[in-house]
Amino acid sequence: MCQHRPPCPAADQPDRDAAIPLARDDVTGWTRLCNGVIRFDDTGELLPDNSIVAPCRPLATAGAAP
User: Fold this and answer.
1) Could you tell me how far CA 30 lies from the centroid of its own chain?
2) CB–CB of 20/34 below 8 Å?
3) What percentage of residues in the chain have a pLDDT greater than 70?
4) Reduced to 3 states, what is the DSSP secondary structure of residue 33?
5) Among candidates 24, 29, 32, which has minimal Cα distance to 48?
6) Which end of the chain has fewer CB atoms surrounding its CB within 10 Å, N or C?
7) pLDDT value at position 62?
8) Phi and psi, residue 58, nearest 5°
9) Which residues pair with residue 23 across a beta bridge?
10) CA-wise closest residue to 35 among 52, 51, 18
11) How many Å from the N-terminal Cα to the C-terminal Cα in the chain?
C-alpha cells in the first residue's frame, strides 16, 4: 500500500501511528494514514481490517494543569 521510502509501518505494527497522514477532516476529527489506519482525535483507531483500537487517552494526574 505504501509507496514511501522507507515504507511506513504496517497497520498491524505497534508503531503504526508513525505512518504519513494522507487526509484529515478537522470537523469530524479523523486522519487517514498511509497504511490505511484511520486515527481519531480521541486517540481511537479503525484498522484496515475493520477492527477497532479503543482510545488510550492519558489519565489525568493530581496537580496537573488542565
Assistant:
1) 8
2) yes
3) 85
4) strand
5) 32
6) C
7) 58
8) -65, 145
9) 32
10) 18
11) 40
Label residue 4 by pLDDT band (50, 70, 90): confident
Place of cell 504496517: 10
Answer whether 14's CB lies under 8 Å from 3's CB.
no
Q: What is the DSSP letter of 18?
A: G
41: its cell numbers: 482525535
Nearest to 35 by CA among 60, 62, 53: 53
Alpha helices (H) in the chain, listed in sequence order: none
- Comparing 15 with 60, the larger pLDDT belongs to 15
The Cα 61–Cα 28 span in angstroms is 28
